[in-house]
Amino acid sequence: MYDVIIVGGGASGMMAALTAARRGKQVLLLEKMQQPGLKLRITGNGRCNLTNTAPMKDFLTHVGQDARFMHNSFSQFFNTQLMGLMEELGVPLVVERGNRVYPKSGKSLDIFLALITELERMPNVEIRRGCRVAELIIDSSGTTSGVRGVSLADGTSLHADKAVIATGGMSYPLTGSTGDGYRIAEAVGHSVSPRRPALVCLKSDMKIPHELVNFALKNVKLTITQMDGKKLSEHFGEMTFTEEGIDGPIVLSASRTATGPLHDGQQLTAHLDLKPAIDTESLDKRLINDLNNNGSRLFHDALRLWLPAEMIPLALQNLHIEYYKRLNQINGAERKRLLSFLKDFTFTLTGTGTFEEAIITQGGVSLKEVNPKSMESKIVSGLYLVGEVLDLDADTGGYNLQLAFTTGFAAGNSI
Question: Which are the contacts of 170, defined by CB distance < 8 A and separation ≥ 6?
């Protein structure tokens, strides 16, 4: 007999198992893949951005409109507690730019090995690999439904009066995140919002010159608006052009607000400011000065005054200024077009990358149906929902992994 069955061996599932086991519970951890923690091992480009050291008030601004849901559980287990646990398990950590926390070794495998080694040494934890859960066993004979166990895909039934759904989302499906948890939760009465790829590249109708593909622009500002001009997001930092659109840190962050409208069939406008450190009026004065002081230079050659070489084909493609025109022949209208390209180059966004390319899944089990302190279902007694299966997501920077570990801790602690 088990006290709790945990479905899914990712970050939230392992944390729920570890916490419940340290409370003396008999824990069964089921993982449908042959090895648990596959997504954890590749997160952060294999470096594992474990958490972020931002104080709670600042941290919550990166969670978005559902931040209030996390107040209770963050008061139990936040970034300092997570960092303390990892160092207790023998993983030295380092804080890098943007308050991002990584294992000192730079290897996400160290985080996984610390957790799985601790679980495997505990006599009250059993881990079964290659076990796919088909559905929950529910007792509905009383006034409220309650968990009685799980049924596996092979027909086997396993019994416990508590279960944790920690199956992850739908991003990186080769790691086992194929949306099983949503199906299981819906089958027992939970509401599940539409799932969409998030923290993902964005696609554009822009013709991107081959010189620009995989080129990274640093210190730029990306603003995304709806077609009516309503601003959805604004981010400053690094982005990359791809064959189909744009990618990179600020694009991933922007995709959190863009993915919903794009998957609903809307088109959005991207505004790229290549010179965010200088205002439009000052930049225009600089252009006038540069044009006057370099009058004999040819336009295509002089573009290096204002742009990296890789950007020049895109500029020529959009500015419609004669290739061999001399700078002293550039008229006011042409200068204004150049100014607009540098300060507000616009293009249309038409879609996002796939779940195979996305870091996280947006959407999931409604937070209104989950107790924010314990992560227990308000619909089925003894059922807990944690991690990415919840309709809860955050920006890049360690925030999403902290959500996974914290919700897993809250469930394990309550159990």
Answer: 177, 178, 179, 195, 197, 355, 361
